[in-house]
Amino acid sequence: MTEFHQDGRAGIDAELVRRLIAQQFPQWADLPVTPVKVDGWDNRTYRLGTELTARLPTAESYVAAVEKEHTWLPRLAPVLPVEIPSAVAIGKPGLGYPHPWAIRRWISGETASVDSVADLDAFARAIADFILALQGADTTGGPLAGAHSFYRGAALQHYHDETIEALAGLKDRIDADLAAEVWEAALATSWDRPPVWFHGDIASGNLLVRDGHLSAVIDFGTSGIGDPACDLVIAYTFFSGSSRATFREAVTQDDATWARARGSALWKALITEDLPVVEAVLNDFRQTR
Questions:
Q1: HSE on the CB side for 125, CA within 13 Å?
Q2: Cα 161 vs. chain centroid, distance in angstroms?
Q3: Environment class of 141 (CB within 10 Å of its CB; exposed 0-12, middle 13-18, buried 19+)
Q4: What is the C-alpha separation between 147 and 149, in angstroms, rounded?
Q5: 154 and 259 assigned to the same domain
Q6: Signed CA dihedral, 139, 141, 146, 149: sign only
Q7: % of the chain exceeding 70 in pLDDT
């Protein structure tokens, strides 16, 4: 998830980053530090010169991603069809900032949107290729889905209470009975194969485009090994019509996995009151009945 944020959110600002760099990585102390224009919620990200970034978790719950990404990004990169972040160094807590933090290579590119993507069908195939390559990566020793992934890739039951509460709150604004049917259909299935790698947040804000084509996938903070259904949610949040159909065909997942993908998309859309996505999920479900 990426948004525009004022510098200073979560007590983190460019001056703090400059001081941390000077203290822990003096070789980069002379590089300018500037906040990125479009930032994620889980971390504050700063340009460090032209080649590097500093990425600082905004809360304790996001800290697990620092070591996870540092360990696993270099192992995943060789098998993926597009660029992903390169781990450079890990910073320590200091100067009143309480968490470990990361230095990464800067990746140029424009955030994916219907305006920046040249051909949505081709983009859908590129995302599908990335997902399939990720699923094929070696899982030996990989981090099983759990709290570190905010239960992406784990059983959807983890989100059940939130989903039921949100359904009750939106019952006058959506077809709550049909939404409940979608949710129950998702819970009725499970991933019964060995765990595979998933990204956990394949969304437009984590997809970079150059010359209209997918060039990089960023932010592996919710990644892990488990059920890959969560990576199909982009079918409802970004694609529609022919591009959604292209994505479905190219990503070659079975009906049960798509049922859980609808459940994943529905849960997030309900708790954020993203009603267009709710309707997209419900319409897709209607076509399966």
A1: 7
A2: 22
A3: exposed
A4: 5
A5: yes
A6: negative
A7: 98
* Alpha-carbon gap, residue 29 to 23, rounded angstroms: 8
Q: What distance in Å separates the CA atoms of residue 22 and residue 27, rounded to the nearest whole number?
A: 8
pLDDT for position 2: 46
Q: Residue 194 is part of a domain; what is its CATH number?
A: 3.90.1200.10
Question: Residue 56 in contact with residue 44, Cβ under 8 Å?
Answer: yes
DSSP 92: P
Which of 122, 141, 109 shows the shortest CA–CA distance to 250? 122
Average pLDDT over all residues of the chain: 96
* pLDDT tens digit sequence for 243-281: 999 999 999 999 999 999 999 999 999 999 999 999 999
Place of tokens 């530090």: 33
Same domain, 57 and 151: no
Q: Which two tokens stand for residue 151?
A: 């239960």
- Which of 89, 107, 125 is the last residue in one of the domains? 107
β-strand 52-57 against 43-48: which pairing, if any?
Answer: antiparallel
Provide the β-strand partners of residue 94. 97
pLDDT for residue 5 is more than 60: no
